[in-house]
Amino acid sequence: MSDDFFLRDGGGGEVSTSSSDTDFSVMWPATCTLLFDEVHSLKTTTGLQLAVRHKSASLNVAMGKAVTPPRGDTPMTPDTLCDWQSTTKAITAIAVAVAHEKRIVDVFQPVATYWPEFRKHDVTLAHCLTHVAGLAFAGIRLVPEQSTKEDICAAIADAQPEHEPGEKACYHPYSGCYIVAECVERASGVPWSDFVRENVLKPLGVADNILLCFPTEDTFTAFKPRLAELVSRPDDTLSYADVMNHPCPASGMRATAGAVADVMACLARGGAPILKTDTLMMFTRRHRIGMLDELQGVVVDWSLGFAVDSALGGTFASSESYGHGGSQSSYALVDPEHSLSLAFAATNKPGARVHYDRVRRISDAIYKDLRLNATRHARAAPVC
User: What is the pLDDT of residue 14?
Assistant: First the structure.
C-alpha cells in the first residue's frame, strides 16, 4: 500500500477519493468501518481528521463537520485546521530537542540558568518536560486565550513549588511548556513561534498547516474559513477573543492531521532533517519510570515531553511507542519499531472514558489494517 486517500464525508455518506481509484474500504477496512461508525453514530464524534504515515502506506481522512449549526455548517476537509489542545506539547518537545542539540539550552540545567527571575533553582528543564517540577498549577488561573505571555510567565516565576522536583509526578497543563519555551526564547534571542517555525515546521514543509497562534485579528480573519470548532464551545460564532493571540507552547495549536502526522513521521524515520538520531533517542527514551501521575490517575512512563507506552497506542503498539494527547479530542503517536506515525483530531470532547476508548479503537484499527497486530499490550488510560 502506497497511496494517499482523501475521504470527505459531509454527513450524508458521500465519499470521494483522490490519487487512487482503489476503494478506501478495501485498503483500510477496519479503519474505514470505524470512522464511519464514529461520525454517523453521533455518539462520540461530529467531525474528524485522521492521518497515518507508514513505510507501506499513507492515509489522510476528513469526515463530518468542521463547524456545526447554529454556528455554521462547514464540512471537514483535509485542509481544515483543527484545535489540537495539548497535543501542541508534542511540537514543543521537538523544538526543545532541537534547541538542546544546537546547544542553545541544556535540558538538564536549572531553569534559572536561562531565566534568572525564576528562583526555584533546583528545577531543570527536564523536570518540566517530565511533569515532575512541582509546578503543575502555577499560573493555572490565567487563561492563555485571555492573558499575555508576560503575565503568565510572571505568575509561573513567582509560584511556590507544590513539592520538591522529582518527588512526585503531576501532569502540568500549562506551566511546564511555558517554562521550557521561555528558556529557549531567552537563550536564543528568537521569539518562540519563530524558533519553532524556522527549526521544525519549515524544514518539514508544514509551516502553512501548523499555526501556533494568530498574532493579529487580520491573521485570524484570513484563516477563519479553515478553522474547525470544538462543539463544547458556546453557540456563538468563533471570534478573535477565543483563540491564542500569543504562541502558547502548551495548547491551542491549529493544524491539519496530515501536517501533524508528517512531523511525527520525521521522528519515526530517526529525526532527519531536524534532529540527529542520538538526540532523538535521548529525548524519547524513558526519563520518568513507574510513577503515578496524581492528576491523570495512572502510572505511565515519560520521556522528555512524550508519554511512553501509553494508552494512545491501543492494544498493538510496541512498548517503545510514544506520543501526546489533547484534552479528550486529539492525539499524535510515533511507533519507531514499526516506522509508524499517526495523528487524530475530533471536534468534540465526549468525556475521558469514551475518548480513550475511541483512541484505542482507532489505533487498533490502523494496526490491524497495516497487519501490525501480532503482539498485544495492556495499557491503562488516564482518568481526565
Answer: 39
Per-residue pLDDT at 234 exceeds 60: no
Q: What residue type is assigned to position 231 of the chain?
A: V
CA–CA separation, 209 and 221 (whole Å): 16
Mean pLDDT across the chain, nearest whole number? 88
Give me the phi and psi of 177, to 5 degrees please: -75, -35
Average pLDDT over residues 119-124: 90
Residues 6 or more apart in contact with residue 154 via CB below 8 angstroms: none
The domain ranges of the chain are 17-370
Q: If you compute the radius of gyration of the chain from its CA atoms, what whole number of angstroms results? A: 20
How many Cβ atoms from other residues are within 10 Å of residue 23's Cβ? Answer: 13
**Angle CA 334–209–193, to nearest 5:** 90
Cis amide linkage into residue 336, ω under 30° from 0:
no
- pLDDT band of residue 43 (cuts 50, 70, 90) is low
**Domain at 17-370: CATH code:** 3.40.710.10
The residue among 53 and 74 whose pLDDT is bigger is 53
Per the confidence metrics, is the pTM higher than 0.85? yes
Q: Which residues contact 88 (CB under 8 A, 6 or more apart)?
A: 177, 212, 248, 249, 250, 251, 252, 253, 326
The pLDDT, as a whole number, for residue 8 is 46
284 contacts 308 by C-beta, under 8 angstroms = yes
Write the CA distances from 205 to 14, 62, 208, 247, 258, integer angstroms: 31, 20, 8, 19, 11
Residue with cell 518540566: 128
The sign of the torsion formed by the CA atoms of 135, 140, 144, 147 equals negative
Per DSSP, 382 falls in state P
The cell 502526522 sits on which residue? 261
Grid cell, residue 266, equals 520525521
